[in-house]
Fold:
Amino acid sequence: MTQVTPGATYRGRLAPSPTGYLHLGHARTFWIAQQRAQANGGVLVLRNEDLDATRFKLEFVSAMLEDLGWFGFAWQEGPDCGGPFGPYNQSERREFYLAAMRKLLAGGFIYPCTCSRSDVRRALAAPHQGEDEPVYPGTCRAKYKAGGKEGSFDPESTSGSPHKRNWRFRVPDGEVIAFEDGACGPQQFIAGKDFGDFVVWRHDGVPAYQLSVVVDDAAMQITEVVRGADLLPSTARQLLLYRALGAPAPQFYHCPLMTDEKGVRLAKRHDSLSLRRLRAEGNSPAQLRARW
Ligand code: GLU
Structure:
């Protein structure tokens, strides 16, 4: 896989989804992202991943900006301060996702799927630990030969129609997707076995996480993606998307996940560890950092 040229100015990103209050686990991963950007004399981008209109709430966006600022994060590009690669709210980047879909369609990489499955429902959000989509059995794939005629992609006309179609990326079965992770070392996933044809666009006209994150990281010229280790299998899928779109892939650095006392990954439902709550309880960012 082509990766971005070493030596290019380091560009990192924080990519929170405003679906709840940020917690200590986010802060730790983001802190590592910020430290790596600073250590490399680079730029840190804040991208608001607000595509999931069913779960996202406007109040979480302002809370997110406030909590990040309080904790000591500083970004050079973002929804609040702009920058050369904007807009930085995903909800305003639809044209980028549509252009990528047209490219994937022209290259014969995607096909429409009429199966109604729960992985389609979930595809909007990044699949964190225990949420990875099951390997798609290929029911609709068989109807469309690779490189064949899949019909047109028109999210506006299909939305709300009885012939709703999701779009899936056809993975090269058996191909080993290998990459070197900056934190976790060498990684290897087998397409078609560790993950199957994944959703890139939902029947309700919303781009899926795997597509939007690749399109944006590429367009914003991110050189290193820092995020939680539960997204390693997503990275394998994303590398296929970079290749199909003819975009160089960034480097990856997946941080170990922060867990609660029972060993469960921190999620937005862990209100007791939300930055809001911890702050209200009188903790300072420095005290919180000392805890990890
Ligand atoms: N918005 C995604 C999340 O909150 C970003 C995942 C990623 O860093 O790619 O999980």
Notes: The CA atoms of residues 103 and 245 lie 7 Å apart. The chain has one domain: 11-290. Residues 11-290 form a domain with the Rossmann fold fold (CATH 3.40.50.620).
